[in-house]
Amino acid sequence: MAAALVYGLGGRFFTREFYRAQAALAAEQPQAGGGRLSLSFDIDYPEDARALPELCDLLAQLGLTCSFAVIGKLVEAYPAEHRKLVSAGHELLNHTYSHPDHEIFHPHESFDDLALSAQKEQIERCHKVCQDILGASMTGFRAPHFGNVTGRTFYQALNELNYSFSSSLTAAASPSFGLPFRAEEGILEFPVTCCPRHPFAVLDTWHALRKSGARHTGKGELRSLVLEAAALVSESRGYLNLYLDPRDVLEFEEAKSALTGLAESPVRLASITYAGYLQLLRDNPSLG
Ligand SMILES: [Zn+2]
C-alpha cells in the first residue's frame, strides 16, 4: 500500500515535470508541438482485423482520421477489412510481414534480434503485400512490440527502404519529451503517449483494461486519464500520440467512452496523421 502510494505520487511528479519539459521544448520548436493529436491502432490479431468495419464506422461518426499499423499476413487473410481502412482515408503503417515474436504468426524470435537483412525483408514483404492487395504505398513504420525495442538497426532498414517515419518509442524513452524528433538515419520518430499515473507505460487499453492486473478498470477511469493527457498536451502546446487496440474499442465500453470523450472534448487538439505531420515538419532544420 505504502509502495503504491509512493509510486503513485512519483508518477504524478514525473508527469508534471515531463509536460513542463515538453512545454519548454515546444516553445523552442513550435512547429514540432502546436497542440496536435494523432490516434493509432495496431492490427495485431484476427480479432482486430474483424473489428475494422465496425471501428471504421465509429471513427467516421466521430470525425476521426487515424493511423493503422498492419501486418502483411493479416492483410492477406482479411483483405476486405483492410481495404475499408484505405477507402475511409486512414493512414497505414508497415508493422512487418509476420510480426516477429507473435505467438501465432512468428513465435520465439524478436524483431529486435533479427539481422538487418531479415528486418528489411520483413518490412519489404509487408510493403509488397499492401501494394498488391490494397493498392497502398507506405512510408511509415511501427516496430512489433513497440516500446520494447532496444536495438535501433530498424532505422537503418527504414532509411535503406526509403521510409521516412516511425512511431515505435514511448514518450518516456524519447529525448524530446514526447514531441516528434529526428532519430537516427534521418527518420522522424513520433513517440507514443504514456499514462499520466504510470509514466513509463503506454496509455493504452492493454495497460488500462486488458492485461492481468490492468491498472484503470474503474468506471470512467480511462476516459478521464485520456482527457487529462489531452489537457496536459493542450497546455504544453505539445503532442498527444494516443494508441488503442482495435478490438478493445468494441469489446470494452470504457475504451469506446475514452475515444468518444476525446472526440467530443472541449480541449481542442488539431487531429493529424503522421504523414500530414511529416509534411509540416519536412525540411525544418530546427528538428536537427
Ligand atoms: Zn496508468
From TrEMBL:
Superkingdom assignment: Bacteria
Coiled coil: none
Protein name: NodB homology domain-containing protein
PROSITE patterns, alphabetized: NODB
GO molecular function: hydrolase activity, acting on carbon-nitrogen (but not peptide) bonds
GO BP annotations, alphabetical order: carbohydrate metabolic process
Lineage, uppermost ranks: Bacteria, Candidatus Glassiibacteriota
Organism, scientific name: Candidatus Glassbacteria bacterium RIFCSPLOWO2_12_FULL_58_11
All copies of domain NodB homology, residue ranges: 35-288
